[in-house]
Amino acid sequence: MDLRERDGEGSGVKNRHPWELSRTKKVSEVFEKYIDKLHGESGKRTYVNVGAGDLYFDRRLLEKYTKDSVYAVDLEYDASVPDYPRTVKCHYLEEVPDKMDYGIMMDSLEYMPEDEAYVKALGDKVKRGGYLFFTLPAIPSVYSEYDYIVKNLKRYDIKSFEKMIASIPELKIVDCHYFYHILFLIRYVQVRMRLRIDKKRKTTSHWKYSEKSPITRLIVRILDMDFTISRWLSRVGLNLPGLSMLVVCRKVK
Questions:
Q1: What's the pLDDT tens digit per position in 148-166?
Q2: Measured between alpha carbons, how far is 24 from 104 in angstroms, rounded to an integer?
Q3: pTM for the full model?
């Protein structure tokens, strides 16, 4: 969860939003296929996660990869965010050592005014042969009130992101597709009909139903299915618009 969306309730979150639950599960499944190809030094991998927030995604990775460690970068870190084993919290990318095995930016690049320069700087922290993983808000035409409230500077599409990476010779895209087509359709209608997306203009990641609630489970299942379909469609060359985009780059030089 983005720490700016805590809404004054500290770093704890009672109920995770279905979007975050689904994204964590499905995106990590993709990332892990690439992570498994990296062995690190003595079987230990070290990675950097920019915009790591409350470390929800990182805790899931570290539970699976019990020897690995993370440099978590987030401007909002303060005493309310507890320390976790094998985790070093930083405020800036410059504090992170070089030669990371891989880097992650999940819905955080869109906050960077100089996004291309930041991608290059992140790539400089990663070893040759390592990976950079991104999730991004997608499709500029549905930039909305929500993006403004959470201070997103932009939304991306595949063509523009490919152009950015092409300007960084040491990086190559190896995986890229949109996901959450259903959410895109909802947002498209909201934008076209000029509907108020957040009446209180105070969008947060909080959710009133528990993870075990039938409502939460149903929504997560629908989003999981959406993601799976998007992966299949991308393999046959179809990239239908989605509210989010996944990109995997490899450092080749």
A1: 888 899 999 999 999 999 9
A2: 13
A3: 0.92
